[in-house]
Backbone:
């Protein structure tokens, strides 16, 4: 009887305690996200986008700059961060450097914006604490146990500057990344990327922030294998937002592989070179 009562007591206390602890963690994480984004809002230039932009070194720009780009970041999540940053009355942000390239429309980004796919559940874990609406993650999605688990164990992903000393990558490395971006049966350019990029353009315009779209280099092997439809998607986006955003392209097929750490990421030497070119273009 005593054991039975202990079991009843344990099962009546443990679940509420777990829920309470999770609620406290959720509150702390949300508060931390807001506080940290407010600190980032004190910089004049923000470097945003996916892992390509993580290679751009803010220390090489002639104005106070901060890199908060993050690996595999869909534009929807970039927008969520910008919504919070622009909400601060004391913000000093004047310019956003946002990565934009052919791979930005690759099929993997369709998966990253689908909470029922593995890539989408990664997005939940990384970005749930940044969300201010239910366009990506709604209450109804939590009926799926894998989605719920990803939401419960979400930890804010801050990204930031990344360096690599690797150079002249092997073909196997290039093939792996190409397959990640373009492998599978879906070959349609990601439409949601185009939509949420448009929302970023609108937000920057209404917030009096200069938006600069930046294409950093690709390894020649990777560049020549991308289907024209993805470069077309890039060109259409650049043309559509030409009146509201500056576009700077370093998509030079002749780049030396010695400046690349893999298929689409600059190494430390390449990043320093192209960050300085970017600085000369914007601040000369």
Residues:
């Amino acid at each position: 009887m005593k054991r039975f009562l202990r079991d009843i007591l344990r099962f009546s206390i443990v679940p509420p305690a777990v829920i309470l602890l999770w609620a406290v963690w959720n509150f702390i994480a949300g508060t931390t996200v807001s506080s940290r984004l407010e600190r980032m809002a004190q910089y004049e230039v923000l470097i945003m986008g996916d892992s390509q932009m993580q290679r751009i070194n803010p220390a090489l720009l002639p104005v106070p700059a901060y890199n908060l780009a993050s690996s595999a970041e869909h534009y929807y999540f970039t927008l969520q961060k910008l919504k919070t940053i622009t909400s601060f009355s004391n913000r000093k942000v004047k310019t956003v450097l946002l990565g934009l390239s052919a791979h930005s429309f690759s099929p993997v980004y369709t998966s990253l914006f689908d909470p029922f796919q593995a890539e989408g559940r990664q997005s939940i874990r990384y970005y749930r604490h940044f969300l201010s609406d239910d366009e990506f993650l709604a209450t109804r999605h939590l009926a799926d146990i894998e989605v719920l688990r990803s939401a419960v164990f979400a930890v804010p992903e801050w990204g930031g500057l990344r360096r690599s000393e690797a150079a002249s990558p092997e073909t196997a490395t290039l093939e792996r990344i190409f397959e990640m971006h373009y492998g599978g049966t879906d070959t349609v350019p990601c439409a949601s990327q185009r939509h949420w990029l448009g929302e970023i353009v609108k937000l920057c315009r209404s917030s009096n922030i200069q938006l600069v779209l930046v294409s950093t280099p690709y390894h020649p092997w990777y560049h020549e294998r991308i289907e024209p439809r993805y470069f077309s998607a890039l060109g259409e986006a650049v043309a559509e937002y030409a009146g509201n955003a500056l576009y700077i392209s370093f998509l030079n097929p002749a780049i030396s592989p010695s400046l690349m750490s893999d298929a689409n990421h600059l190494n430390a030497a390449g990043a320093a070179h192209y960050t300085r070119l970017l600085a000369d273009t914007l601040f000369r």
In short: The domain at 40-283 is CATH 3.40.50.1110 (Rossmann fold). Residues 2-40 form the longest helix (39 residues). The first strand starts at residue 45 and ends at 48.
